[in-house]
Amino acid sequence: MTTAVASEFETVIGLEVHCQLITKSKMFCACSTAYSGAAPNTHVCPVCMGMPGVLPVINEQAIEYITMTGLALNCDIAEFSKFDRKNYHYPDLMKGYQVSQYDLPVCKNGWLEIEVEGQAPRRIGITRVHMEEDTARLLHRTDDATGEGYSLVDVNRSGSPLMEIVSEPDMRTPAEARDYLVRLRQILRYIGVSEANMEEGNFRCDANVSLRRRGTEAFGTKVEIKNMNSFRAVHDALAFEEIRQAELLRQGATIVQETRGWVDERQVTVSQRSKEEANDYRYFPEPDLPPLELSREFVERVRAKLPELPAARRARLLGLGLSEYEAGTLTESRERSDYFDAVVAALPGERARAAKLGANWVLGEVGRWLNAAADRDIAALKVSPAMLAELIGMAEAKTITGAVAKEVFEKMTESGQPAPAIVEQLGLAQMGGSGELEGIVRTVVAANPKPAADFRAGKEAALNSLMGAVMKETRGRANPDVVKDLLRKELAE
């Protein structure tokens, strides 16, 4: 929003996130959820197809996952909840209704802390997290002969467990909305309940946005935005919409409550349909499912399975003396963070020192290995945390030089061999004794008369050129401190 518009209006944003859970079977039947790449309509049964007389059965794993999500988002977990029928007639809804939750969800009254750069941390309220079933997938096609459009229905996705996470209208900028989504996805991945990938459609966001004049309390007319498949798209769609609404309000026009779609190619939102109200769905309790009752014992068993969450882990790493960048980057992924923790645990000595060494290597060499290919995962790294700690220890003990340590790491990623074996095989142990280095230093000085003369003339930087030549001659094995002393001695003669 431009400064002029922002001074006149305040943006109010709430997000509805649909997140597909990682369960082996669907929400109310035994059909497999591993349908990615499968032929259309092959992971289906009478329940998925909405056949008369079928009875749904609640997926216990899905209930555990939504409970875990609620706990991670600081929600109250309801001892009593129920499923409802949400009635609407779309071609991707086989039964003509969706089994969802309405007034009695599993989780409610939570919060998630965001921190946009340059701003103080803020809590965004979580209204509810409720359980429902996913819809079928519509595949839009164009007839080659007639040019007419048509749609096909793939029921494979229908009935997959879907969480809806509804925020309070607490966000005020597109940047805050993006940060909320990034942190929400991070939590869901940390606790292992969802892949949470927007590009693949298992993490989908609808945004509600309205404007109100600054200083007023009443909300403006909200507009819902759909069809956003990336964090950037959410940000850009909200940025466009707040400007569109501001222009209408300044002209004295009325904002229409509607659903709009984001057109990424044109960077605009377009009207799709009028926005439904809750009573349009004619909710009523699902007659084929009993109420859901969760004991305190069940909730506490789930709570015990929660890992250390990103915010707590980041705070712990900051407490060990790591920088904001180091702590933030290491905790982006649970897998990388777990790897780092294991490296630090395997290193001897003072914890802050171990953390710094571990961070340098995990963010440095391990990070470069991960970034070398788009599909690389740290689970595929042949260097275990214990092996990396052993390599770091060898470099710290000056058994090998820092340059050689990096070379050894590369060899370890290829072969899976431990560092000592590679060092021995390739003869990479550090040359520390002056006796074996004196001749090499003398030869290098004789072969490089200009930098030698420059150094003798008072140009201290010339020593670096001679150091590099010695290190090249020794394949990085020479102790730099010993080399420097020997060079100064040789050049003084």
In short:
The chain has about 500 residues and is of the alpha+beta class. It has helices at about 5-10, 60-70, 175-190, 230-250, 295-305, 310-320, 325-330, 335-345, 350-370, 385-395, 400-415, 420-425, 435-445, 450-455, 460-475, 480-490; strands spanning about 10-20, 75, 80, 85, 95-100, 105-115, 120-135, 135-140, 150-155, 160-165, 205-215, 225-230, 260-265, 270-275, 285, 290-295.
Give the topology, please.
Layout: H1 3-8, E1 9-20, H2 60-72, E2 76-77, E3 80-81, E4 84-87, E5 97-100, E6 107-114, E7 122-133, E8 137-142, E9 149-154, E10 161-167, H3 174-190, E11 203-213, E12 223-228, H4 231-250, E13 258-263, E14 268-274, E15 284-285, E16 292-293, H5 296-304, H6 310-319, H7 324-330, H8 334-346, H9 351-371, H10 385-396, H11 402-415, H12 419-426, H13 434-447, H14 449-456, H15 462-473, H16 480-492
Parallel strand pairs: 12-13
Antiparallel strand pairs: 1-10, 1-11, 2-6, 3-16, 4-5, 4-15, 6-7, 7-10, 8-9, 11-12, 13-14
Helix pairs in contact: 3-4, 6-7, 8-9, 8-10, 10-11, 13-15, 13-16, 14-15, 15-16
Query: Roughly how much helix do the residues carry, as a percent range?
Result: 25-40%
Continuous helix count: 16
Give the overall shape, derived from the CA principal axes.
elongated
Q: Classify the oligomer.
A: single chain
